[in-house]
Amino acid sequence: MANVLLKNIENPNSHRIDEYVKAGGYFALEHAINEMTPKDIVDDIRKSGLRGRGGAGFSTGMKWQFASLDPKFPKYIVCNADEGEPGTFKDRVLLERNPHRLIEGMVITAYALQSIRGYIYVRAEYPHVEKILNEAIKEAYDKGFLGDDIMSKHFRFNLSVHRGAGAYICGEETALINSLEGRRGEPRIKPPFPVNSGAWSKPTIVNNVETYANIPYIIETSPKAYTFLGTKDAPGTKLFCVSGAVNKPGVYELELGTPLREIIYDHCGGIRGGRALKGVIPGGLSTSILTPDKIDCPMDFANLAKRGSMLGSGAIIVLDDTMCIVKIYERAMRFFEHESCGKCTPCREGTGWMRTILSRIEKGLADMEDLATLEDVAANVAGKTFCPLGEGAAHVLLAVIKSYRGEFEYHVKYKKCEVADPSQKWEHISEGELDRLEPIV
Amino acid sequence: MVKLKINGQEVEAGRDSSILYAAKAAGITIPTLCHIKGLEPYGGCRMCLVEIEGVSRLQTACTTKVNEGMSVLTETDEINKARKAMLEFLLINHPLDCPVCDKAGECLLQDEAARYGASEGRFAEGKRVHPENLNDPFIVRNMQRCILCTRCTRMCGEGQGAYAISVTGRGAHSFVEPFSHDKYNCEYCGNCLTVCPVGAIMSRLHRHNYRPWYVEKEVETVCGFCGVGCTTYLQMRGTTIIRTQPMLGTGVNKGLLCARGRFGYDYIESESRLKTPMIRVNGVLEPVSWEKALQYIVTRLKEVKSQHPPKAIAAVASGMCSNEDNYMLQKLIRFVIGSNNIDSTARLAYAPSKTYIEKIFGAAATANVIADIEKADGVFVAGGDPTAINPVLGVQIRSAWRHGAKVVVSGQPGGLGNFINYSLNSVPHHEETVLNTIVIGLAEMKGYSGTNPYIEKKIKALRVPCEPELKATGVTLESMEEAIDDLSRLKKPVVVIGPALLQSGIPSKNLFLVAAIAYLTDARIYLLSKKPNYRGLIDMGCVPDAIAGGLPVRPGQIKLKNSVTMSVPADKGLNLFEMIEGALSGGLKALYVLGENLVFNLPDREKTEKALSSLDLLIVQDIFTNETTRHAHVVLPAAAWSEKDGTMTNLGGRIQFLRKGASDSVGRSEWRVIAEIAKALGMNETYRDSKEVWEEMTQVSVLHAASDYEDIKDGGLMWPYGSVQFQGGAEDFEVEGIGILPEVKSEPCEGPLKLYLLPERSLFHSGSTTRKSRALLSVSPEPYLSLNPEEALRLGLNDSDTVRVRTSRGSAVVTIKIIMDVPERAAILSNTFEKVNFNSLAGYSVDPVLNCMALTDNEAVIELI
Amino acid sequence: MITAAIADKNAILKDKIKELKRLYPQTRSVLLPALHAAEDLYGWLGDDALEQVSMLTGVTTAEVKGVVSFYSLFKTKPHGRHVIYLCTNIACLIMGADTLEEYLQKTYRLSNGETTADGRFSLVIMECIGACDRAPAMLVNDDWHFNLTMENIKEILESYK
Ligand SMILES: Cc1cc2nc3c(=O)[nH]c(=O)nc-3n(C[C@H](O)[C@H](O)[C@H](O)COP(=O)(O)O)c2cc1C
Ligand code: SF4
Ligand code: FES
């Protein structure tokens, strides 16, 4: 296991500034401010090859460069801590255990971009994180790492937390900016990109929590050292959050390019109950499912793309052979339907339509024509939506039907599920138990 | 310019153009649903998908900018399939109720579905249901039909700046709603109705009585409600207007209208319109034929003329009437009768403000393009809420604010409330102190440029207010200072002056102070005008001291070929107030009132009534009987603005065509009637149409001499109408009480504080005509007295309480409405309704410098009954 | 009717929003934090609360409502003393969250968006709450509970009175 981002988190007080500093924290910031020009930093980040960890994997250095070339003032630095992609919980671990690392990364970014104001957009589902962050920010202010005269270098940067209110789409950067501005969290037209016209129409950098957390490491070592980790095309480590049918679910920091098989079988101790693997969703619910034959795939951007999927947020959801694909994707589509912002026609109307057909298939109320309609509707959504949310919904569905068509057809033909008796699935609960329970009045 | 290919065709387009507009310019139509000209592109409906060479996904033409060398296809099988799919998505939740939908025939969804093929009904589940909402008097919402293009909410926000409706909910559960679910709490501009592409937001007034194919003819004209001069289209069926509709992107309003313009026109078709001329016989008005009425007028005028000097005859021109009507009236008085006794209610505020401002800055000062307000980086407003007086102009201020302009309002902010940086909402009679402070502050910050020594000298003479004086204004020093700070930094500011600036304190001082702000910040000036043609009537010479075109009256000045009286009478005529005095003292014997309800629109109603009833001859030409016709000896039915041809001049000096909608109307064009009278009294000229009247006017008016009638057609003729010589420079001017400030009286420790009654300037009404509009009455049905919450608390009053409001002039019983932004110590009373109106409860005095009206006797006592 | 208690809360909100405004370059942006603050103060966001927020932020009521209703976690109706946020997204679903949902239905007659008759619990079915490694999971008010089973959920909920 690599130890770049999760360094020191075994320490029960890793979130306190003293412990963080003791472990070498804020050294990178000091170094950046004392020894480097803003341009040096942008160049270093570009050289490191760091790519965004929020999902799209865009080059962080390039993003910063675009923003730094824009003459508009002020510039804003925003941290995307909305972490809404189902299956993802890596940012939460960083935020809970290593908040100063994020703050340090953001302050360095601010220095590199000569920004004076930053916001951390935290999802409402993490109420405790907001508290931890506010305390950490206060500590950083007290120690002079934030404020009007950071490290007595006449460098000003103020930071605060902005709480979301329950909307997955607000993880999308332009929707996030709308939400930050006090609007409905609908995505905006790009271009202009946030780097030129983001929050309050000013150049704005939106990066993921994990992306910022990488910055101090690159500064305190070197861009070169960073490229020793991971692959050529995708340097560095990645936090993989593994859930589902594995023995040891959790967050693992591993180098990019680590094969999926190694993650599931070595790090996570294999499939629970020694069952057979049915499929893996490799990067969060919006990424296409991989069939077991593809699990030798190295976990990086290019290799997953080659197999028709994406690295996404690095959320690996493992499915074993007792699980009903139709049921899972019916629930997945319910998620997309619930989270569609409603701005564009195909996503607003299409996700609901796809879900209703999936529901009928799952309940055994559909015929083959419905399955054909489902595929056609998905094809009509794919490629036509305003933002990747609706696009993702259609793509994952098309991919799963393609790989697991037999199971869908079985549902249609036999009006029931192909996988073993559903009551067997749950280890800790059985149907009988449920019936025995008396309502508590 | 960039070059690109669309469907193989070489196309050139502006660098910032979208593919949609580039295609449109090349004659290629790309279907759209959510796009609307004039609003930001949205990209939601996904109908406009096109293929761009080298780009893997289809792109939306409305949001994608053109690029050099780009190659675009707008109709391929893939695109058509995608568009059909989008329509299918929209139709899964759209009811198939076209046969009963009022939008049928002009529904975009229907059109596109016809073009791309209707869907096959593959959606098996039930449609979303959302019952029709009929709880609002104007707007019917049928959210089942909504396709969530958000044109309405964007129009309401981005366009109108009202933000009164919003998409609520998320995803497929989204609906467009006002805050309260059913009744709208809005300005009822109805601009959402213009843009809804389907039958989701419809006009209640037109429910089931409007169908697109009912429209027999559409007439482009200007709205007859206020001085903005919005372009509007009268959709006619026979002689009835079935709808007034703006056109997006067209006219000074660029497709916006306000509540009055959109819904209020129905007063024209009111049953109580005057239908025949009437003559008073034994104290009662009795219908007579036109011949008889005109003959009567001529005889009586001759009688007066033979017994009295020409000075005994006067006329009141109308801000509701065309330039030609007003020109003809002043011709009758000046050139036929031989007196300069002509004036109008523009005298109350608009005309003196205009004269005064032009004296300070030169003749060009008040002629400005309304659309430029939006481009300002700061707006200073004093004297009334522009969003109520001139709504579409007010919208421009909001738009400026949204683009980052600083907006500072002195007085009640009203509809600008959410769009201001500083509200200087002072206690009545203390505006002056606030303005004074700002002028001194600005002068300190900016220094003097020396451009206009007259005004600089006067600014230097201002007295610095002391603390108790500042305190008495009710505005914090902090906000004044911040306002000064912001104002001093402006590069492209605008100053907007409303009529209320002259209504309290010392009018000339107030006006001077605002002019000084404009001077120090180098701002453009806009004078609000609630009547549509105040500026025009002044330009037509309907003032006692200047002829058409603005030259001061001088004897022998103008010679009209063939005219009876070949020259302008020598003496200055009577102004409106002097006419009233004259009638009372017996010097004035006959008065011709054109389209004006004098009794109702002047304070001190008693005095006006007494004056009018002492006349030997009162001729009133109007579209309704009203408080003024009650005293008339002859009443002539007039044509409403939608019933005649002519021109009108908007508040910024733009001349536009008024075009006749109805082919026959009960009234006759006023200028024709007046010309007939003039002829009978010896005028030689005859006119075939209003164009000939205009042409004669251009011979009299130096201002219009070089103008071309044809130029009025496209978008109007702009001041100075081709004349170069008519620029005029700054002159010295007078200010009353320059070094003094309102007295700070110590208030009684016990008992109520002094309260001042002020007139409301309502968005939903204009004068007494709109009380005949059923539509406007449905949103503003009755008079009310508004107070701010603290005042109400102090007086122990609640919303909707019935009270008696008393001044030294009389009293009225009215309901209370509590409104946040009413200034402290002010009580604002409606001025539209017959029984309760402001003007019968206040008096006035005439300002010696401006010759305008200043309110008096408006201290009020309110008691609960 | 504005009671003294509400007037007090309005005053607190006013101060709070004034403070929050300092955090943003434009007043409008204060809307989300202002709504959170109002929800904390009034318990939920009824029309009165929204009007108050509108007045204090200068954002029109219609827009405030548009914003509030976009986000799924603002409480726009009264709720029970304790709110159960049960995640049923994939990771939790495959670990049995749907049976927990049934359990709540059976035991407390509690379904999504509803409140028990005694006003004790309200239920909000959640999309992923980021606890997939310890699924199924829920929040009760602000407290996290992981690895739920039929047994422990009963125990957990019974500790909320
Ligand atoms: C529907 C949708 C949801 C997203 N959710 C998140 C999220 O929860 N967290 C995140 O960091 N990025 C999310 N993103 C990606 C962001 O738009 C953006 O690319 C990212 O914050 C950029 O940061 P990075 O370059 O550091 O990855 C989402 C994107 C989409 C389209
Ligand atoms: S795809 Fe469309 S409706 Fe869906 S979230 Fe994106 S913009 Fe909103
Ligand atoms: S017109 Fe382009 S997306 Fe609607």
Task: Give the topology.
The complex is a heterotrimer of chains A (441), B (865) and C (161).
Chain A: H1 17-22, H2 27-35, H3 38-48, H4 60-69, E1 76-81, H5 90-97, H6 99-113, E2 117-122, H7 127-142, E3 158-163, H8 173-180, H9 194-197, E4 204-208, H10 209-220, H11 223-227, E5 237-244, E6 250-255, H12 260-267, E7 277-281, H13 301-306, E8 315-320, H14 325-339, H15 345-363, H16 368-381, H17 388-403, H18 405-414, H19 431-436
Parallel strand pairs in A: 1-2, 1-4, 2-3, 5-8
Antiparallel strand pairs in A: 5-6, 7-8
Helix pairs in contact in A: 2-6, 2-10, 3-4, 3-6, 5-6, 6-10, 14-15, 14-17, 15-16, 15-17, 16-17
Chain B: E1 2-6, E2 9-13, H1 19-25, E3 49-52, E4 59-60, E5 71-73, H2 77-92, H3 108-116, E6 139-141, H4 151-159, E7 165-168, E8 175-178, H5 191-195, E9 201-203, E10 217-222, E11 231-237, E12 240-245, H6 259-263, E13 278-281, E14 284-287, H7 290-307, E15 313-316, H8 323-337, E16 342-343, H9 350-361, E17 378-382, H10 386-389, H11 391-402, E18 406-410, E19 422-424, H12 431-446, H13 453-460, H14 467-471, H15 477-488, E20 493-497, H16 507-521, E21 524-527, H17 534-539, H18 576-585, E22 590-594, H19 598-601, H20 605-613, E23 617-622, E24 634-637, E25 646-649, E26 655-658, H21 670-680, H22 690-700, E27 755-759, H23 774-779, E28 784-787, H24 789-795, E29 802-807, E30 810-818, E31 826-829, E32 843-846, E33 853-856, E34 859-864
Parallel strand pairs in B: 1-5, 15-16, 15-22, 17-18, 17-20, 18-19, 20-21, 22-23, 23-24, 27-31, 28-30
Antiparallel strand pairs in B: 1-2, 3-4, 3-5, 6-9, 7-8, 10-11, 11-12, 13-14, 13-24, 25-26, 27-34, 28-31, 29-30, 29-34, 32-33
Helix pairs in contact in B: 2-3, 7-21, 8-21, 8-22, 9-16, 12-15, 12-16, 18-20
Chain C: H1 4-21, H2 31-42, H3 47-57, H4 61-70, E1 82-87, H5 90-93, H6 97-108, E2 121-126, E3 138-140, E4 143-145, H7 150-158
Parallel strand pairs in C: 1-2
Antiparallel strand pairs in C: 1-3, 3-4
Helix pairs in contact in C: 1-2, 1-3, 2-3
Bound molecules: flavin mononucleotide (FMN), iron/sulfur cluster and FE2/S2 (inorganic) cluster.
